[in-house]
């Protein structure tokens, strides 16, 4: 399926790079970030060290997990992140740098860019984080919790963890106290809010982090001065001396050894255990990090990274591993299977009146149980290519090179359509091949059709009229009065959008893009058990978005970070009691 230009794809055009790469002043000076005391370059770490917990991937899940495991009651923790620290990249600090960071995303495994571009086999351009903080250091900053039903599982889920909802709530709160803010909503976002209400996405819920039916303002990780807060900031909660964060540390494999049969009580117990990891610094020096007795390796390398590392470590479908020449440690047929990405489709316009830059602040949730597409909006100040003008008839030939583009988009929840991931190279820095098979399930396509119609209704609202421009002479209204119309960038809706399902479905397929909420590959009940342990192994877990078979809420980062905190507390409690303790004992750990 071919992707048509979407705002972000347009930006990938190489000739824009020079303008975007122009040096920007460092927006915030001052004290070093709170995580700095823990961070060293991997070249400065020992070639062999021992830890209680080794967390692979310093992203949305990995940072809160490592901070918690190195907190009260915890142990000695190593966090390994293949990218650099966010403070090295000034563009990451502001919402204005969002588009710039994506435009400069580099697919090369050797690049230092904090976003790594890739294209799925579906032909849809995409990016993944390559920096401490993971997605939270490069994303749009919108923060919203999962809908309550998510914790109880969905139609086709094999299994869901037995979530302790009190601990879930307190873990969300822990993240929120440090990272989230109430945004000031004006300009495009305020207009979208009014238009959503006009299009009957009601009630109006005001500002809330809860997932509730209607229109709401969510939290943001950009503070009042516009500075981004990321999961890396949560590292400051670690006890000094317990946490060591190595950046530019690319984990190449988990070391998985057979368990001594004498020590292996019970034949049903796993026959292999993780004993450590191998990682490589930027000078290609190999390091070994090994577990102390009772320790664990936790993969938090994200939806692409975690299944990739399991495969590279011999945990995966035996026949695939054998054909790649990787010795099989555990035959686990579902590693890299069940890969999902929520389709995003939208309409982008060049508004007739000036508007500010805004990332997502307002969302429309037409139904509480996650069965209707979510509506989100953004506006970007972007340079538009003269080359694009012939393709975009609504862009006036006299338009300036830099324009503001505003987008209203819908995201299909779930989704049900799923694909798979496979190794295209033994290099762990290379993005594995992945196919998401967007819209392979008719239910997803039907959702998109309904969602796109809602986008059209929002655009048709009276509130949106001020963003229409006088149309050219070719489109005079019946009364000879110049009609006002939207200047659309990229694909336009079919004229019969309100009645013709086939035409809207074609639009969905033609314009599908990603909202970067991809998940799966190490799904609960198939690759990991309800405690996120890799089935068939000991002392190895996966804690990140790769374990999800349905994306949580309108946007996932809240729940991914919550999960890191939650699992950190669970693991510490297990460490102390070697049994699951009740929630009243967690409060002691949370002081
Ligand atoms: C452009 C963009 C915009 C987004 N906007 C939003 C938004 O506004 N709101 C929202 O809720 N969500 C948003 N998301 C999604 C959200 O950021 C992700 O769902 C979330 O970050 C996933 O968390 P994770 O821990 O699973 O993986 P990540 O956060 O991606 O973390 C994985 C980390 O592991 C590291 N890693 C991978 N392999 C290795 C290896 N071999 N060795 C060492 N380290 C490794 C990576 O470099 C990365 O830092 C956005 C994502 C993107 C990319
Ligand atoms: C968790 O928080 C939600 C939303 O605030 C609330 O509805 C629910 O009752 C809470 N659950 C528990 C167990 O505290
Ligand atoms: C979800 O809610 C809608 C109404 O808001 C209802 O029509 C639908 O049946 C619900 N679906 C499920 C799976 O509960
Ligand atoms: C609906 O749209 C499709 C695809 O554009 C077109 O082939 C078909 O004729 C349209 N149907 C009607 C009833 O106009
Ligand atoms: C829960 O933990 C508290 C404190 O550790 C203890 O007093 C209580 O008996 C425990 N309750 C159960 C049901 O185990």
Q: In words, what does this structure look like?
A:
With 591 residues, the chain is of the alpha/beta class. It folds into two domains: 38-183 and 218-342 and 415-438 and 513-582, FAD/NAD(P)-binding domain (3-Layer(bba) Sandwich); 184-217 and 343-414 and 439-511, Cholesterol Oxidase, domain 2 (2-Layer Sandwich), CATH 3.30.410. The chain is 22% helix and 24% strand. The strands form seven sheets. Strands 1, 2, 3, 10, 11, 12, 13, 28 and 29 form a nine-stranded mixed beta sheet that branches. Helix 3 links the parallel strand 2 (48-56) and strand 3 (77-81). Helix 6 (165-179) packs across helix 12 and helix 10 (442-460) crosses helix 11 (501-510). The longest helix has 21 residues, at 557-577. The protein starts with 6 loop residues before the first helix and ends with a helix. The relative contact order is 0.19. The site of one 2-acetamido-2-deoxy-beta-D-glucopyranose has 4 residues, from helix 6. Belongs to the GMC oxidoreductase family. It holds the Pfam family GMC_oxred_C. It comes from Triticum aestivum (Wheat). One of its GO terms (molecular function) is oxidoreductase activity, acting on CH-OH group of donors.
